[in-house]
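User: Fold this one for me? It's Prepilin-type N-terminal cleavage/methylation domain-containing protein.
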Amino acid sequence: MSNAKGFSLIELLISSAVGLLAIGIVGSVFLSGHNAANKRSLELMLQQDVNDALRAIKEDILRAGYVSGSSSSLKISGAIETVYISPSNNCLAYTYQDKTGTQKYYSIYYKDGNKIVYKELSSAIDTTTACSVSYANSLIYEKSIKVIDFNISSEVVSSSSAASQYITMKIKAEVKNNTLINTEKFTKVKVRNWQ
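Assistant: Here's what I get for Prepilin-type N-terminal cleavage/methylation domain-containing protein.
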């Protein structure tokens, strides 16, 4: 009988099983790494969006009440403080002049559904209409992020000659398709332009 060269059926089955096992292990490690990277990417997007929203509101609040060439600060009609806060719907509104000292700008932030909206107006508003503007822009990427809570509180700070306020803002948000990825951040701002 001549020497037959090649694989037997048993050797072929064993090598195929070992190969499939190796491919399965490599595939599961790859998928695990991909899922971890995807989750981390979503966490970073959420953190960055919430941080950017808080920073934008904070920088805007520092302009609240600015009026060129005057000893007193601008206030929205009907407001007691420089920054008007409506506790019923967590709305924040204020006014300031631009660098030419003529145009008044009115800025409003509030939670609308699952987003925080922002509107800047050049027409006069008062405390009764400040928190009911329409066609406002979303401050956070609303297609991927859901705002759970937007809370604003104010604390009066006064001295013998002037009064100001501390504004505390808290945002709680989560990724829309994954409620396990969430964050809660807050910041405290001292209003720069005293009354």
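One thing worth pointing out: Strands lie at 84-86, 91-97, 104-112, 115-121, 137-138, 145-158, 163-175, 178-190.
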